[in-house]
Design goal:
Helices cover about 60% and strands about 5% of the residues. It has a domain at about 5-55: Multidrug-efflux Transporter Regulator, Chain: A, Domain 2 (Orthogonal Bundle), CATH 1.10.1660. The chain has a two-stranded antiparallel ribbon. Strand 1 (about 30) and strand 2 (about 35-40) form a beta hairpin. The longest helix is centred in the middle third of the chain and has 32 residues, at about 80-110. The protein has about 140 residues and is mainly alpha-helical. The chain has 6 helices and 2 strands.
């Protein structure tokens, strides 16, 4: 199948497939005589696996590590267990950061009471006065 057919079968875009190929997550596709990429069911399975991992917020490095382990099926799954346990730890950390963000937003919201004009808005003043920190929700873990 061609890249468009693969994208349709895996419910993604051709750009996503090309990106994963550049990242080394997808196996190389054979080329036809006309130099088109030719994909197989192996590519569909791999792409679906990658997309499922991304849906679980796994990083490309984590997915790459999983794929290396999968490509050596005789190995024990303890390495996969450890990788997933580490990812769960990242998720727990992120949840704590998001809870802290929620509390910070709640405190900011409490600074505005009643009908005020924008120039007297406690939220705007609070946003202007607070120190800039990176957003916990935007952080990614290294893996």
């Amino acid at each position: 199948m061609k890249i468009g057919e693969l994208a349709k079968a895996a419910c993604c875009t051709t750009e996503t497939i090309r990106f994963y190929e550049k990242e080394g997550l997808m196996p190389d596709a054979q080329r036809t005589d006309a130099n088109y990429r030719h994909y197989t069911d192996v590519h569909i399975e791999r792409l679906r696996f990658i997309r499922n991992c991304r849906a679980l917020d796994m990083t490309h490095d984590e997915i790459r590590a999983l794929l290396r382990l999968i490509d050596d099926p005789a190995d024990r799954c303890a390495s996969i267990d450890a990788l997933l346990d580490e990812h769960i730890g990242h998720v727990e950390q992120r949840l704590a950061e998001l809870q802290q963000l929620k509390e910070q937003l709640g405190e900011l919201r409490e600074q505005c009471t009643g009908a005020r004009t924008v120039d007297a808005c406690g939220i705007v003043q609070g946003l202007a006065a607070m120190e800039t920190v990176s957003s916990p929700a935007k952080r990614t873990h290294v893996g």
